[in-house]
Amino acid sequence: MEYILSREGGWDSVQDWMDVLSGGEKQRVAMARLFYHGPQFAILDECTSAVSMDVEGAIYTLCRQRNITLFTVSHRKSLWVHHEYYLHMDGRGNYQFKKIDENTFQFGS
């Protein structure tokens, strides 16, 4: 993401970063902060919705390598390969908590 520094005037530039960064750039910065702090657990709410699937895979692989336990809120079934369990809430007070395996019905997109 070095290009952002040159694009926006360097490290000392004062910007409204919410207006300057794209959605994917904001998500990458948020994940960089996660890796910097290295928590034991992280709750990720649609944290990769604006990045490509290869970047998404790299992010989740790095989280696993760094032993960060993830709770992910997402509609992307591509993320299931990075998790062992799912919690499905139906919006009416009911839920299912199950292990993900090759027979798991995958909802979402």
TrEMBL record:
The answer to whether the entry has keyword Cytoplasm is no
Question: Which family, according to UniProt?
Answer: Belongs to the ABC transporter superfamily. ABCD family. Peroxisomal fatty acyl CoA transporter (TC 3.A.1.203) subfamily.
GO biological-process terms attached to the record: fatty acid beta-oxidation; long-chain fatty acid import into peroxisome; peroxisome organization; very long-chain fatty acid catabolic process
GO CC, any one term: peroxisomal membrane
Protein's recorded name: ABC transporter domain-containing protein
The signal peptide annotation in the UniProt record is: none
Swiss-Prot/TrEMBL keywords: Membrane, Transmembrane, Transmembrane helix, Transport
**What are this entry's molecular-function GO terms?**
ATP binding; ATP hydrolysis activity; ATPase-coupled transmembrane transporter activity; long-chain fatty acid transmembrane transporter activity
List residues of the ABC transporter domain: 15-49
Q: Which InterPro entries does the record associate with it?
A: ABC_transporter-like_ATP-bd, ABC_transporter_sub-D, P-loop_NTPase
Q: Where are the transmembrane segments?
A: none
